[in-house]
Every structure is written in C-alpha cells, then in structure tokens.
Amino acid sequence: MSGKMVVSGASHLLWMVFAASQAFKIEILPESPVMAQIGASVSLTCSTTGCEAPSFSWRTQIDSPLNGKARTTGNTSTLTMDPVSFGNEHSYLCTATCGSEKAERGIRVQLYSFPTDPEIHLSGLLEVGQPVTATCLVPDVYPFDRLEIALLKDNRLLKNQEFLEPMEGKSLQTKSLEVTFTPTRGDIGKALVCRAALHVEVDEELRERAARKELEVYISPKNTTVSVSPSTRLQEGGSVTMTCTSEGLPAPRIFWSKKLEHGALQPLLENATLTLIAMRLEDSGIYVCAGRNLVGEDTKEVELLVQEKPFTVEISPGPQVAAQIGDSVMLTCRVRGCESPSFSWRTQIDSPLSGKARSAGTTSTLTLSPVSFENEHSYLCTATCGPKKLEKGIKVDLYSFPRDPEMEVSGALVSGNPVTVSCQVPDVYPLDRLEMQLLKGESVMKNKNFLEDVDKKSLETGSLEMTFIPSTEDSGEVLVCRARLHIDELESEPKQRQSTQTLRVDIAPKDMQLIASPSENVKEGDTVIISCTCGNLPKAWIILKKKAETGDTVLKSIEGAYTIRKAQLEDAGVYECESKNELGSLSRRITLDVKGRESNKDYFSPGLLVLYCVSSLIIPAIGMIIYFARKANMKGSYSLVEAEKSKV
User: Fold this and answer.
1) pLDDT per residue over 593-628, tens digit each?
2) Superfamily of domain 119-215, CATH level 4
3) CA 372, 377, 383: angle at the middle one, nearest 5?
4) Looking at domain 2-112, what is its CATH homologous superfamily?
5) Which residues partner with 121 through β-bridges?
6) Half-sphere exposure of 451 (CA within 13 A, CB side)
7) Among 2.40.50.140, 2.40.150.20, 2.60.40.10, 3.60.150.10, what is the CATH number of 406-502?
8) End-to-end alpha-carbon separation of the chain, Å?
C-alpha cells in the first residue's frame, strides 16, 4: 500500500513538472475561414494546451448574438450553429482563461446559398418558325454578385451573364437569364443546357450546377389531304373509304366529322381512315378531316354524293378483246342493281355463237374455245331485270403472231459482194396490221407495211427481202429482223418479235500483183522470175500457169514464184496467176517476150548482104517457074488464080 502511494506521488510530481514545462496555448478549427451553406450545420471547435482546467467563452467580433450553442468538455469548447442563417455571418472569437493567463483566437464564418440545379422554362411550345423565350432560373442564391449563368443550345452558347450589381441587404434571391430564339427543323433532337456557377471558396461540385432540357419541336399540321375510294359519287347501298393524311410534328391526330345545317359539325371518328358502308341518299354531304396536334389544326373537306342505285350491265374484258387464234377466251357479263337477272347471248349479225354460255347469279359467261375465224364478231349480252332490259356489246378481234421471224442470208458475207437477206413471219393474221423492218445495228435498212388483202381471213406469211453490199466495217454488227403487229387490244402477247444475227464479213482475194523480174522483155539465156502475191484474209491459194491454145500448163511455183533459168524462145507467151479462197477468186496476166541473141556484127560484110538479098529473090522465082511449068504441062496453060485455088 505504501509502495503504491510512493509511485502515485512520484507520478503526480512528474506531471506537475511536465505541465509546468508546457506553455498555455489556444487553437481553433477549422483553421481557415468557414464557407457555410445557409440551412446547413456548422461547428467551430476551440481547444487549449498547457492548462489542466481552462475556461472558455464565445462572442462575435461586433458583439452580436451568437445564434449558436456552446459546449465545453475538458480543454475543448464547441460552438454549433444549426441551421446556419444570415445571423451567423460574423467573425467569431473564442477566449480561453487558465488562471491568470488568457488566450483568444478568431475565425470568420462566410455564408453562401446554391441549393438546387437551375430550372429551364419555355414561354410556350417549340413550334418551327415561331419565336420562343427560354428562361434559366437559379433559385435561392447568395451572394448573387458571385453568380454566373450561361445558356447553350446543342453546345453552342446562346447567352452568358454575370450578376455584378451591388447587393442591398442579405437575402436569398432567384436570378434568371432569358434568350429568345426561333426553332427550326434542325433543332429536333437537340437540347438546351443551363450552366450556373457561384464563385465562392467551396469544392467544385458545390459551386457549379447545370440543367438540361431536351427540345420537343412541334410543327403545326399542314398539307392535309383526303383520298377517296372508289369515288365521291356513290350508288345507293355502296361503300366508300376515305383516308386522311396530315403533316406535322408530332404526327397530327386525325378526326372525322360531318357538316350539319348551319355549319355545325357532327363528330364521327378519330382515325385516319373512315369507311362508310350501305350508303343511303341522306348520307350525302360534306365530310371534314381535321389534323390536330398541340400547336394547331388543319382541315380538309370532301363532298360525297349518294345517287339512287341503277340497274347496270358490265361486260369484260372490255368493249374489245384481242384473242389469239387457237386459244380460249371468256366473255363475262355482270349485272349490278338486280339480284336475279336473266341473260341471253347473240352475235350482232345473228350468226352461230360457236361457244358455250353459262349463267350463275348476277354473272353470265360465254366461252369460245378454241378461237377460230368464225368467232371474229361483235357479241351482245342481254340482261333482263323485271321490266328493265339492258344490252352490252363486246367485239372479239382475232390475231395470230405465234413465232419470231425467220431470217436467212443468201450466202457467205464477203466484203464488196452483194448478199440478199430475207425475213419471214409465218402464220400472221391480220396481215394488214403487220410491219416488218430490217435493221443493221440501230439503222433501219428497209421497212415494209402489209396493207393489201384487208378483208382476207387466213393465216399468211409476211416476207421482207433486201440486197446489200457488206463491208469489213459491218463485222460485229447485228442484223435484226423486227416484226410488229399493230393491235391496240393486244396485251398479254408481245406486239413485237424479232430475230438477230451477228455479221461476220470476210474478204475475197484482193491486192494481187503478178510481175516478171527483171523484166517482161528478156533475151535467150536470161534468167526470169515470175512471181504472184496476194494480200488477203483469209489465206488464198495461188495457182501460176502458162496459157496456150492446146491447154494451160500449171507451173510448179514456190510461194507464188516460178523461176525460168536460161530462157528459150518457147518460154515466151502469156502467164496467168489465179488466187482462190472459199469466198471467191481473182486473176492477173502478163506477157513474157523472149528475143533470140544476134550474131557478131564484125563478121557481117556488105557483100554478104547483097548475096543474101539476091538469094532471097532468086529462090522464090525459081519455085514459081517450076510450078507454072508443071501446070502448063498438065493443062497447056496456067493461071495464078487457079493455082491458088488448087493449093487450098
């Protein structure tokens, strides 16, 4: 026990020594000025060191009420302001007393109010082309001279404002920024953004706020239209469907009504389509379609006229029908306005029907199968309903146009050689409606209309023929034979048929040359080359020969060349070259003249010349003397004329 007291006494002595060594100090937290949100709770804490049992007191620097609660525990005192109001915006002093020592520390409390995000308000609905004012409100702001507001549309700044005017007194105020703009279609899907910043010393997330408003752009209804099916003129008991459309944004709602007397409207339906069935005469009138949305309305009127139900007869396929010979055709007679009609069929000239008639209810059919020339008539359908009788006619026109044209070319196409193209269209009726054309590419070469034999009922063949001279430029061109049958009622079958052929033009032998080298005049013993060439596609055969009365001699040429070595007199004559291919032939001739070689002139003397001349006269004279002497011996006389006759 005494041991514990000794220890305790020693500890107390040590504490007193330690406390005496500590100076009396005071601190206040937070250390810097406090920025407090109006309506929030703020605590100021004052603490001391170096004093075992200090006492505390709080006051404002201008001795105004504290507007807070102070609480002291040990060496700490706390002043709590909850909620913070304008009465708390002061510099606060904390005084701590320790025996005869006193210490004081101050801290300033500043207020701000920025409690909510901005609010965006529009003066009205956003209608394209109509100005509208956008207002950005920032409520309960303090101090507003630190406030800045910016209004943006689709990240583009519309307006920015700082509120720098002096404040009169302390109060929460709502500040606003207004911008007037005119919406366009381009604003659809965009947004307005209001950004507000209070430039006070608080965290960034507390001093900046923003609001966003998606733009709902409207377009007032316009271009309201009404379509009516089948017609605005109706038969009693019939039906009508009216469809209304209207442009706008958002899409207008469609309302139907009917005009009554004195202009009043009788509401009928909210729908784009209004269908009226079993129409009565009193259903005639003006019907109104209204397209409405939040920004406007647009209307369209349509007048319906309901007529008394008549008794009518319809015939199909129409007033005229074209039927292919050999096919089947069905004529249909239909009655409206009568529940139990009776029918009869006849031709306009009372010839046999050549078909089968069948009636059921309000419809009667006449089937012609197969169609032949005896069916080319005007048919009449007579419908009887009680005392009423109506007749309707239909004309059956026949035609035959079953195949494409048949085209033939008279032979191979050779450049420069005439060729005949013929085109035939078989089994045509009526021939007088036929038109034929021959075309080369897009160019018409020949056209023909068959206007003869108008009244002839038979299947005919239409023909068109033409002769032309092809050239190499025609290769690759398309030769077209086109036939048209001009029948207005022809729908299901083609009115036009054609055949085509691609031209391939070849070339007959040409550009032939036949030459003798070195010349066509040579001497005995010379070497002569006779050559024949022919520039041609396709390749041609070359035949080289020597002409003679007893027959031609084919020469053995090498690639069109024939060589005569040591020419003799008998080599003279006419030489011919003939070039052939499957497209034709071509020939050329030259004449080769071979002269004998003369004797040496140095050994020829005048004496010899005289002797030669005399001998050339004497020898014939002697022959004549002998001849006439013989004649004289036989007849006793001679006659030159008689001598010539006997010689022959």
Assistant:
1) 989 876 444 434 444 444 444 455 555 555 554 444
2) Immunoglobulins (2.60.40.10)
3) 120
4) Immunoglobulins (2.60.40.10)
5) 135
6) 3
7) 2.60.40.10
8) 202
**Of residues 443, 445, 483, the one with CA closest to residue 463:** 483
CATH architecture under which domain 512-595 falls: Sandwich (2.60)
User: Which is higher by pLDDT, 533 or 309?
Assistant: 533
Q: Is the pLDDT of residue 233 over 80?
A: yes
pTM of the model: 0.44
Domain boundaries 312-399, CATH class: mainly beta
For residue range 420-471, list pLDDT tens digits in order. Answer: 999 999 999 888 888 999 998 888 999 998 876 556 788 889 899 999 888 8
Q: How far apart are CA 66 and CA 46, in angstroms?
A: 15
> Which amino acid appears at position 254 of this protein?
I
Peptide bond into 221 cis (omega under 30): no
SS (H, E, C) 79-103: EEECCCCHHHCCEEEEEEEECCEEE
Q: Comparing C-alpha atoms, which of 122, 131, 34 is closest to residue 84? A: 34
Biggest CA–CA distance in the chain, Å, is 224
Instruction: Classify 132 as helix, strand or coil.
Output: strand
Q: What is the H or E stretch that residue 624 is in?
A: helix 606-635
Spatial separation of the C-alpha atoms in residues 307 and 234, rounded to whole Å: 6
Q: Residue length, the chain?
A: 648
